[in-house]
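4.2 Preliminary Data

To establish feasibility before requesting continued support, the project team ran the inverse folding procedure on a target of 260 residues. The structure was first converted into the token representation described in Section 3, and no sequence information of any kind was made available to the design step. The complete token record follows.
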């Protein structure tokens, strides 16, 4: 898990009557509609806590590694009960997905130089991970992970709905939730001592040449002149091979100290 849950900031308004977690059938994704670049999950959690507005969500996530839980899962948030006049091509789940049987996740948004809303990739990553965790915890199928837009027709989350580009982003989000097109995890192969020795031998070959940095020129010249470093054999150009980048054994070290 790449995040922690902070439940210290509770929303001012949510249904105070507890519900059974077996009633949770849907997960609904939202965006905060924040403009600029400074909005945070904590700031939005404080908004739910302080604002005199009957609105709330269970979780708020941003680019940071702390997700704020503003409403307990055992209570309904006031998140998808809005009465939209226009469906905007959505609202397929109207009357099916409700505050009472859903968990809502807010993704903190920003706006670019043209005023277009976007949700940072790190925020999406946290939302995907949280969604997957909640699906597992409450046995919710991916078909019941949806957008606010699909519930009431509200254009939310705006960067992931209504337009072909927005729908493509949502499809990508859902593919990640379902684990589709994810790179398969390779099983770690056990390396034998013989294989490790062979790999180290090949690695050392890349160090055993005269490649070096300019800053050490004076010191290298001094070491050669005074016989401290004598090298071993010739390099590809026929020059003495001092192997400047190679490892230094204790035997080599004491020999250098002795010569000095």
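Position-by-position output of the design step:
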């Amino acid at each position: 898990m790449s995040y922690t849950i902070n439940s210290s900031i509770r929303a001012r308004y949510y249904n105070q009557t507890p519900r059974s977690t077996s009633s949770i059938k849907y997960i609904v994704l939202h965006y905060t509609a924040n403009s600029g670049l400074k909005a945070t999950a904590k700031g939005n959690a404080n908004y739910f806590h302080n604002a005199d507005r009957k609105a709330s969500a269970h979780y708020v996530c941003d680019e940071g590694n702390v997700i704020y839980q503003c409403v307990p899962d055992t209570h309904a948030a006031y998140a998808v009960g809005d009465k939209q006049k226009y469906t905007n091509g959505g609202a397929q789940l109207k009357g099916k997905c409700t505050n009472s049987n859903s968990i809502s996740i807010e993704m903190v948004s920003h706006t670019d130089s043209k005023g277009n809303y976007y949700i940072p990739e790190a925020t999406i990553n946290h939302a995907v991970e949280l969604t997957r965790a909640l699906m597992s915890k409450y046995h919710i199928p991916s078909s019941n992970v949806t957008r606010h837009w699909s519930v009431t027709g509200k254009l939310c989350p705006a960067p992931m709905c209504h337009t072909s580009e927005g729908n493509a982003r949502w499809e990508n989000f859902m593919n990640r939730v379902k684990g589709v097109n994810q790179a398969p995890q390779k099983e770690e192969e056990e390396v034998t001592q013989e294989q490790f020795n062979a790999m180290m031998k090949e690695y050392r070959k890349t160090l055993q040449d005269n490649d070096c940095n300019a800053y050490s020129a004076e010191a290298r010249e001094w070491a050669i002149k005074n016989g401290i470093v004598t090298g071993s054999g010739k390099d590809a150009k026929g020059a003495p091979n001092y192997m400047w980048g190679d490892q230094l054994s204790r035997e080599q070290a004491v020999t250098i100290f002795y010569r000095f």
